[in-house]
Amino acid sequence: MVDLKIAIIPGDGIGVEVTAAAWEVSLAAAAACDVNLAATAFPWSCDHYLETGAMMPADGIETLRDFDAILLGAIGWPAKVTDDISLHELLLRIRKEFDLYANVRPHKLLPGVTGPLRAENIDILCIRENTEGEYSGAGGRVHRGTAEEIAVETSVFTRHGVERILRYGFEMARKRRKQLASVTKSNAQRHSMVFWDDVTRQLSAEYPDVEVRSYHVDAIAARMIMFPETLDVVVASNLFGDILSDIGAAIQGGLGFAASANIDPIGRSPSMFEPVHGSAPDIAGKDVANPIAAISSAVMMFEHLGHTELATTMSDAVARVCARGIGGRSSGSSCGTRRITDEILLEITR
Ligand code: IPM
Ligand code: MN
């Protein structure tokens, strides 16, 4: 009997190597925990586009709907297909069509991993709005190539969208250290961002146990570097959350450690789990990519699916390997994808 049906989309570049590693580790841990996993891999990628003219088949979304979750590597290889096509037709399309509105990105310094900062107690949960805002896709470009050329890109903030992501942030804060940082740029953007601040204030009345502070995005960017230990849950719009989660990744030791979950908190669609990093074509196929971000994304997947023992088996193994200093190049180790994966597998089967 199959317990979980997972769709795997390795995608492009290092996405292929890190999802292979994440799945190998998942299978080993599942065997140890008596969980029966079934995977179907989909070759949807820039190469697939070159072969078929599409990043995924017309019924791709319907196909994915049958799975419990999606594990994705990374999408994009600009020398093959421009990013505006590859990302909008696959990654961003899945996020939007499945309405995976909460993009959850934990930034925690694992034991043994030395980040670039002196701070040792970094444990920030970045919650990024994942379906609208600056990524709405609304806009256009006219008079191409002429001196009169105009490009317009409209941010869209709806009460429905803003309220549900803030509520998710409040709920997460409630489960953690009860501090919520709500991020805007309302001193410059006086419509959408003032609206976001207003909704934050309105909701805060429902969460008196959560201490909420509003920050401007520039100020919190600096705070994440100067005083990261003062931050608990950070909730931000699509673009601001994207940028802040790269800072988060940097301060947790590098993109090789940063996991993420694209969640449908209501459970209507399969949620999707992917490392924060991209496809990194320059290092693809060289066995240098750190698989920990992808493995930790699989951990988030099993947690989300309620398989806590499986998730903990994997995260404990990752923590033990990191504690031994085998954590990937960005944190000073010289170990590559294969070696790190093997060490984690050994911890699980030991
Ligand atoms: C991320 C990535 C994507 C994003 C890109 C590849 C479109 O940077 O998941 O953070 O901006 O959402
Ligand atoms: Mn990003």
UniProtKB/TrEMBL annotation:
Its main location: cytoplasm. Pfam families: Iso_dh. It catalyses: (R)-malate + NAD(+) = pyruvate + CO2 + NADH; tartrate + NAD(+) = 2-hydroxy-3-oxosuccinate + NADH + H(+); (2R,3R)-tartrate + H(+) = (R)-glycerate + CO2; (2R,3R)-tartrate + NAD(+) = 2-hydroxy-3-oxosuccinate + NADH + H(+). It comes from the Bacteria. GO terms for cellular component: cytoplasm. Pathway: Carbohydrate acid metabolism; tartrate degradation; D-glycerate from L-tartrate: step 1/1; Carbohydrate acid metabolism; tartrate degradation; 2-hydroxy-3-oxosuccinate from L-tartrate: step 1/1; Carbohydrate acid metabolism; tartrate degradation; 2-hydroxy-3-oxosuccinate from meso-tartrate: step 1/1. Residues 5-344 form the Isopropylmalate dehydrogenase-like domain. Keywords: Lyase, Manganese, Metal-binding, NAD, Oxidoreductase. InterPro entries: ICDH/IPMDH, IsoCit/isopropylmalate_DH_CS, IsoPropMal-DH-like_dom, TTC_DH. Its EC number is 1.1.1.83, 1.1.1.93, 4.1.1.73. One of its GO terms (molecular function) is NAD binding. Its cofactor is K(+); Mn(2+); Mg(2+). It is found in: Cytoplasm. NCBIfam families: TTC. Has multiple catalytic activities. Apart from catalyzing the oxidation of (+)-tartrate to oxaloglycolate, also converts meso-tartrate to D-glycerate and catalyzes the oxidative decarboxylation of D-malate to pyruvate. Belongs to the isocitrate and isopropylmalate dehydrogenases family. This is D-malate dehydrogenase [decarboxylating]. It comes from Rhizobium leguminosarum.
